[in-house]
Amino acid sequence: MASRAETGNDQNTYGLMTRPNKPFMIGIGGGTASGKSSVCAKIIDQLRYLDSNGRQVVIISQDAFYRDLNEDEKKKAIKGEFNFDHPDAFDYKRMLQTMKDLTASKPIMIPKYNYISCTKEENGVFLEQPDVIFVEGILTFYFKEIRDLFHMKLFVDTDADTRLARRVNRDVLRGRDLEHILNQYTSLVKPAFEEFCLPTKKYADVIIPRGADNTVAIELIVQHIQELLRPSKSEFFPDSKPLVIDYE
Ligand code: UZR
Ligand code: MG
Hints:
Helices cover 37% and strands 17% of the residues. The protein has 248 residues and is of the alpha/beta class. A 5-stranded parallel sheet has the order 2-5-1-6-7, covered by helices on one side. A two-stranded antiparallel sheet has the order 3-4.
């Protein structure tokens, strides 16, 4: 099957739908445990319910782009002393290249990050020309070149105490002890949030207080995305001709 990149546009395949010329990119930023993934999931759920075009929607986590650690850094990570909330913890160039490839409709592999071993498996999730891409992470809007690739930017703004409570529960499930979690939070996570994540809020198009609990904000965002993706209106769907089913 000819890929979208090869044909130049999408008038070939992929279900009863019109293929967009390029994917629609939505960035979701916000502090740790603010509910970024839950907001993505809720938006996607409602989009699916409302959208009969069968578009392929995916979520990519910035965590997939944590850089590989050297031996010293691995030791620090095990003791909770490596700063995973600092921009330097990410392989920014790789993330940028992956996103550019997605914009150009090239098939790509997203690595899968393991929070217990602090390593990533290269053989993660294979993506081939998704139509709508959500990218979520604490520093999604930190790097200008990445930030500029988004068509819509959302920032999930949840109280710090709510986030800490969730973070503790999550880290306990990841096998860490309470003292270690709280030390890491006060010495690294919180200062990095204030220095690197919070200042990116100004780049957001929409700020969502209370995260996934904010059903009104989520409904408004879903309606807006739908409007933008409407075939007759959108640069993403310039031609509204229905296509032939060809799922393989
Ligand atoms: P979210 N993180 C880990 O806990 N372990 C790792 O190996 C890699 C990342 C944490 C990271 C950050 N901080 O606060 C959080 N630490 O994952 C980001 N320490 O993920 O946005 O889902 O909270
Ligand atoms: Mg997360």
